[in-house]
Amino acid sequence: MKKNILIIEDDPKIRRYLELELIHEGYNIDLAQNGEIGLNLFRKNNYSLILLDLMLPILSGEEICKIVRLESDIPIIVLTAKDEIFSKITLLDLGADDYITKPFVIAELLARMRVIFRNKHTLVDKKILKFENISLDLSTKEVNVNGCSITLTKTEYNLLHYLIINKNLVLTRENILENVWGYDYFGDGKIIDMYIKSLRKKIDPNSDYIKTIRGFGYSLKKEC
Length: 224
Known about the structure:
There is one protein chain. This protein is α/β, with parallel strands linked by helices. It folds into two domains: 4-121, Rossmann fold; 128-220, Arc Repressor Mutant, subunit A, CATH 1.10.10.10. It is built from eight helices and twelve strands. It has helices at 12-24, 35-44, 61-71, 88-94, 106-121, 154-165, 173-181, 191-203; strands at 4-8, 28-32, 49-53, 76-81, 98-102, 128-131, 134-137, 142-145, 148-150, 171-172, 210-213, 217-220. The strands form three sheets. Strands 2-1-3-4-5 form a five-stranded parallel beta sheet, with helices on both faces. A four-stranded antiparallel beta sheet has the order 6-7-8-9, covered by helices on one side. It has a three-stranded antiparallel beta sheet with strand order 10-12-11. A hairpin with a 3-residue loop joins β11 and β12. α2 runs parallel beside α3 (61-71) and α6 (154-165) crosses α8. The radius of gyration is 19 Å and the shape is elongated. The N and C termini lie far apart (48 Å). 26% of the residues are buried.
């Protein structure tokens, strides 16, 4: 099965170069020209690896690295320019698995990717997100409530995932639309209310956790 690679790089020439070379090697490729788009793609799709530039508009590579590492164990190779002062220790502390300095030889990048994939193959990803009696297995996409598996649609799962990673925060409808439905969604924001209602019915029938914050949006929290 082909591996899916996400390239987050603002330089169009480097982005295109990587795309062509990796497609030639048999990978499926998604492209993002800034950190915001890259983060949205990461949260919407399943990838085997992220190639991440550090100097990105909107959201920096450092910010993306930290956020991704909080939500997933997906391997990250950072692409750094020669004049960027980042030690390997700093990059590893950010959550990166490896880094390569621009300009680079594609053969070296491919070799580093193969090493990461070999190492990853020996590990079992058990990343679990939990909130009270609700748990999400990020590797299998399984959702459990009180120890029992429940079935969610992809959008319901993505919505629950977004609520959990932002627990105790008030999320506006704009926040939710951008991060769950994507920046290119132009439909009615009322669709959120419909999915919140469906999600409550499946995981929170008493509305104990998913709170409606009138005039603002929603928040996942437990009141003392």
